[in-house]
Write a structure and sequence with these properties.
By secondary structure, the protein is an alpha+beta fold. The chain has helices spanning 6-11, 16-28, 39-51, 69-78, 96-108, 113-139, 143-153, 159-163, 168-190, 194-209, 216-226, 236-263, 281-300, 315-337, 341-357, 370-388, 395-438, 459-462; strands at 64-66, 90-92, 267-269, 449-452, 477-480, 488-491, 497-502, 527-530, 533-541, 544-552, 561-567, 570-573, 582-585. The strands form three sheets. The chain has a six-stranded antiparallel sheet, with no helix packed on it.
């Protein structure tokens, strides 16, 4: 590979981060036309109620799916949560700093979605600037730092945070964490006194913006172990003690935040999507290797982590793919890791940042902080391939690795960043349109209970009543019997009952396990009694309901019940089979 020459001077220029930020914002600018999507509608509704003093909680409390058993029960009664939701479920995140930006948005310009997207893009541009400043400190004012900044700016893994208003919290967290790392490094190595208090202050602010800020601790630990300055001739114990002292203020902030976080009732418990290692360490450890493998492979190579969010997941392929990707990257970085401690901090910090990222189902949106170190690693492999590794024998292995890395991170990434933003908006519009088209729209629905026999396991199905463009009457209550992509056998043993038998069982995907994780399996005979109906699990397979009976207070043919099912990409009317008969519902194409 040829040396970068004049391009190196451009990449090493002090203003390069500004150009990279502009490039990243331009590539993400299609987000300006996206409008409000899914959680955005929930957040706006909450803020509107909060401003009127009618919200069932404080103004910042809209990052919550399940708060407590009482509210969970109420949600199940009206159909806002399905029957399989864990009664003790808790998914409630404390992000008041991020929430404040949305309160301003929905309070002052609730219908100007483009302005909200512009605000998120400004945060994204600020994040790229912060990453550029950090890489120049840790890698030096070199073209490698500049290339790493550009690669970070065009990373298609950033599509969702950059284009979804509800994900702005991830951008705010990342800006504050990266700035914290910059201040910490300057304080420890240059003796910059303001950094001693600015670093912990920024960590506290980041934690108030989102719990994903915990990932920044991985970089702090890596910095303390690999880059902490020490006196000449100091023993290893003295070095570790000095490093530990430098982390004490951050530890105080973290412990204080966690005590408040838990004491105020925030956190996750019972979900298969969000896991709190402090509350459910066993469940977290059980999925940790697979989640880290999917995240690492998605960050370094292909495909995106979301590609593995299916059941059964090809985890053997994922694990070996991740091992190969990390191993090859280490081989390419070997000439520089030993002599460039700043690079080592970034690489080790990125690896440690995968641990908190794995508390949720693998998704590219979780890689904002992991990508800081990963972009530096990719740029450094390219540097070795160009002959800057210092050892000639390492160059050609690095060349072999650098070529696909350049294709993935340099050529495909910017194209995919634009594509993923545009396609995400279009796919949500299509899904919303088909949902509205097939959903009952007559006024009689307001006096009926809507029974959905089966719906695809997506978040669209969970927010039907918030679909943009829907102005028709809402049902009196909602009853979701099942959610699966698989075929379902429907039996009617008597006039008031149905028995559903999904192939492979329910709760076999990340969407339905949001409300009940594998650590809380069903058992045959489990019953859920709700107003107007009850549910009894007749059979299970690996803790997943494989046969479920639904008993209604009214005959299934009663006009108070309205039946629909998802078929051929939309909701269509469903007629329960006659008593003693059965019917089959075909599988749903994801």
């Amino acid at each position: 590979m040829a040396r970068p020459g004049r391009l190196a001077a451009v990449l090493a220029h002090p203003r390069l981060p500004w150009l990279a930020a502009l490039l990243g914002v331009l590539l993400a600018s299609p987000a300006l036309a996206q409008g409000l999507q899914l959680d955005d509608l929930l957040h706006r509704a909450w803020v509107e109620l909060a401003l009127q003093g009618e919200a069932p909680g404080p103004w910042w409390d809209f990052y919550a799916v399940a708060r407590d058993p009482e509210s969970n029960r109420m949600a199940m009664e009206v159909g806002a949560s399905p029957w399989w939701a864990l009664p003790e479920l808790r998914i409630r995140f404390w992000r008041p700093l991020s929430a404040a930006t949305h309160v301003v948005d929905y309070g002052l310009w609730p219908d100007a979605a483009w302005l909200m997207h512009a605000e998120s893009l400004a945060w994204y541009g600020g994040l790229v600037l912060a990453v550029g400043a950090l890489l120049r400190r840790l890698l030096g004012p070199t073209w490698v730092a500049g290339l790493g900044t550009v690669l970070y700016a065009i990373d298609d893994a950033h599509a969702v945070p950059a284009s979804w208003i509800a994900q702005r919290n991830a951008l705010i967290v990342a800006v504050l964490v990266v700035t914290m790392l910059w201040a910490h490094d300057r304080a420890r190595r240059d003796g910059w006194r303001p950094g001693r208090w600015l670093g912990p202050l920024l960590l506290g602010a980041a934690l108030l913006a989102g719990e994903s800020a915990v990932a920044g601790l991985g970089y702090l630990v890596a910095h303390a172990l690999l880059l902490e300055p020490h006196e000449q001739g100091a023993t290893r114990g003295a070095r570790l003690l000095r490093a530990a002292r430098g982390l004490v203020p951050y530890g105080v902030v973290l412990v204080g935040w966690r005590l408040l976080y838990t004491g105020l009732g925030y956190g996750a418990h019972g979900s298969g999507v969000y896991l709190d290692p402090a509350r459910e360490p066993g469940a977290y450890v059980a999925v940790l290797p697979d989640r880290i493998a999917a995240l690492a492979l998605g960050e370094l190579a292909w495909p995106t982590p979301e590609s593995w969010a299916a059941d059964p997941m090809p985890w053997t392929l994922v694990r070996w793919g991740a091992v190969a990707a990390v191993g090859l990257l280490g081989l390419g970085l070997a000439p520089r890791l030993g002599r460039e401690r700043g690079l080592a901090v970034l690489v080790v910090g990125a690896g440690l940042a995968l641990l908190p990222a794995a508390t949720a189902v693998p998704s590219a949106r979780l890689l904002l902080l992991v990508g800081v170190g990963a972009s530096a690693a990719v740029a450094s492999v390219i540097a070795v391939a160009l002959g800057e590794g210092g050892v000639a024998r390492w160059r050609w292995p690095a060349v072999v690795l650098a070529i696909p890395l350049l294709l993935i991170h340099g050529a495909l990434a910017p194209v995919m960043l634009v594509h993923r933003i545009v396609e995400r908006g279009r796919s949500l519009e299509r899904a919303s349109a088909t949902t509205v088209e097939g959903f009952p729209a007559d006024e009689a629905l307001a006096q009926q209970t809507l029974v959905i026999v089966n719906a695809p396991p997506t978040f669209i199905a969970a927010t039907l009543w918030l679909t943009p463009g829907r102005e028709a009457a809402l049902p009196r209550s909602l009853r979701l019997l099942g959610s699966t992509f698989a075929p379902v056998v429907v039996q009617r043993p008597d006039p008031r009952s149905l028995v559903l038998q999904p192939v492979g069982g329910y709760l076999g995907d990340p969407f339905t396990t949001l409300l009940r994780g594998p650590a809380h399996p069903f058992a045959a005979g489990d019953t859920v009694a709700l107003a107007g109906w009850s549910v009894r699990v007749l059979g299970v397979a690996h803790g997943r309901p494989s046969s479920v009976r639904f008993d209604f207070d009214e005959p299934l043919d009663d006009p108070s019940l309205r039946w629909i099912v998802w078929r051929d990409g939309r909701f269509v009317p469903f007629e329960p089979p006659a008593p003693g008969r059965a019917a089959a519902i075909p599988g749903v194409v994801p």
